[in-house]
Amino acid sequence: MKRDAHIHGPFCPHGTKDAFQLYIEKAILNGFTDISFTEHAPPPHGFTDTVPDRDSFMDEKKLDSYILELQQLKKQYAADISISIGLEVDYIEGFEKETTRLLNDIGPILDDSILSVHFLLQEKRYTCIDYSNETFMNFARFLGSIEKVYSLYYQTVQDSIKADLGSYKPKRVGHPTLIHKFQHFHGIQVDDHEMIMKTLELIKGHQYEMDVNSAGLAKQYCREAYPPPRYILAAKEMGIPLVFGSDAHSAKDLHQYYERVYIE
User: Fold this and answer.
1) C-beta of residue 117 within 8 angstroms of C-beta of residue 156
2) CA gap 104, 165 in Å, rounded
3) What is the per-residue pLDDT across 89-125, written as a single tens digit (0 to 9) for each?
4) How far apart are CA 172 and CA 115, in angstroms?
């Protein structure tokens, strides 16, 4: 099986409007047998997006159209490739009940899903930690240090793994070292080895999968996969199922760096 299971398409408000067919036909051409479209899920009710353009999430009003279009494409391309309909669901501290209700509503019609952390909470303030290097640095000043941002991030990821989000909770943890995205901007060498290993132990203990996400290699200030190679190998040795994801937000980024990060 050759699989890319973390893909954002035209329903992502901060991506391109490349048609699903462009992704699908490129995947077939490159010999992929399975792909998952994992659009950003609508936000839990009551949560206000804090990024300037309010474009972190799919519009809930477009969810039905997203599902319907992919259902049609699954049938159209069934002889050539297996297409899964999925979502990337944000774990947002304090909105567990609302997220559970969202998952209970949409979970039965999904084939695949990812649980990710993008927003961190401190003193009733939510910050999208991967939005920009300026946002990251402002949050670090607010917390008091880069190290405290890392610590809060991993604690939130660990909380997401332990959270009770109902029977439709995603069983794959998205980009578990996303906090590295701006590491070459702030230039601080944070020793997060124990935090990463604790996260991997929790993933293993809950029998979840791990997103082996190549997008960080394309980021100017990251330059590595999420997680980096040593932890991909560690996860493999621990028996954690690894699932490649390009985290593409355009057809040209589909399968980016697959050969560099995929492990048999």
Assistant:
1) yes
2) 9
3) 999 999 999 999 999 999 999 999 999 999 999 999 9
4) 6
Gap between the Cα atoms of 34 and 145, Å rounded: 42
Which residues on adjacent β-strands are paired with residue 83? 35
Q: What is the pTM of this model?
A: 0.96
Nearest to 182 by CA among 222, 217, 142, 134: 222
Amino acid at 122: Q
Distance CA 184, CA 148 (A): 17
- Give the integer Cα–Cα distance in Å for 264 and 202: 22
Backbone angles phi, psi at 36, to 5 degrees: -125, 125
Among the listed residues 251, 253, 256, the one whose alpha carbon sits nearest the alpha carbon of residue 19: 251
Q: What's the chain look like in SS3?
A: CCEEEEECCCCCCCCCCCCHHHHHHHHHHCCCCEEEEEEECCCCCCCCCCCCCCCCCCCHHHHHHHHHHHHHHHHHCCCCCEEEEEEEEECCCCCHHHHHHHHHHHHHHCCEEEEECCEEEECCEEEECCCCHHHHHHHHHHHCCHHHHHHHHHHHHHHHHHCCCCCCCCCEECCCCHHHHHHHHHCCCCCCHHHHHHHHHHHHHCCCEEEEECHHHHCCCCCCCECCHHHHHHHHHCCCCEEEECCECCHHHCCCCHHHHCCC
Ordered by where they begin, the domains of the chain are: 3-261 (3.20.20.140)
Q: Is the pLDDT of residue 1 over 90?
A: no
